[in-house]
Amino acid sequence: MTSPCEKTPGLAAARWCGAAACGFTLIEMFVVLAILGFALVLVVGYGAPVGRGLDLRGSAATLASGLRLARSEAILNNRAVVFDLDLAGHRFRPGSGAVRQLPPRLVIELLTISGERRNAHTGYIRFNPDGSSTGGRISLADGGHKIMVGVDWLTGRVSIADASR
């Protein structure tokens, strides 16, 4: 849309156009800035929804990845490798890899043979050079959600199952 100022060429336009015809008022500018500020607050304040179930699945995937890494290390180096799990400290160590931390709000349980438990708070799953393992199951729970990461003793296969249902 064109203003009357654009229709009149030359110096006559400057004398003919008043302040109201050639621009925005200060009130209009404040209203626009207020609307943009409100929209910015809505966009920044509304973060991505992070559900506990999603975080629990991510922790289970991280744990399964560590178990698979320990199994691969055992096969590659042709020696037994131990996957250490500290239930009280919420951390684990796959073989010679770095210690990795799990979220502290998770409830972690380890089910394995009695010889693989050091005490009530620590235990391990051993992977053999042929890919087999001592087997076991690690349960992760957060509220009403529960996921189990299992290790098959014969093949060393790692699987994740949702136990909430």
Question: Can you walk me through this structure?
Answer:
With 165 residues, the chain is α+β, with helices and mostly antiparallel strands. It folds into 2 domains: 4-45; 52-162, minor pseudopilin epsh fold, CATH 3.55.40. 33% of the residues lie in helices and 25% in strands. It is built from 4 helices and 8 strands. The chain has helices at 4-7, 12-16, 26-45, 52-77, and strands at 81-86, 91-94, 100-101, 107-111, 122-127, 136-142, 145-151, 158-162. The chain has a 4-stranded antiparallel sheet with strand order 3-2-1-5. A 4-stranded antiparallel sheet has the order 4-6-7-8, with helices on one face. The longest helix is centred in the middle third of the chain and has 26 residues, at 52-77. The radius of gyration is 31 Å and the shape is elongated.
Distinctive features:
165 residues, 4 helices, 8 strands, minor pseudopilin epsh fold, single chain, 2 domains, alpha+beta, elongated
Short recap of the structure:
Helix content is 33%, strand content 25%. The protein is of the alpha+beta class and 165 residues long.
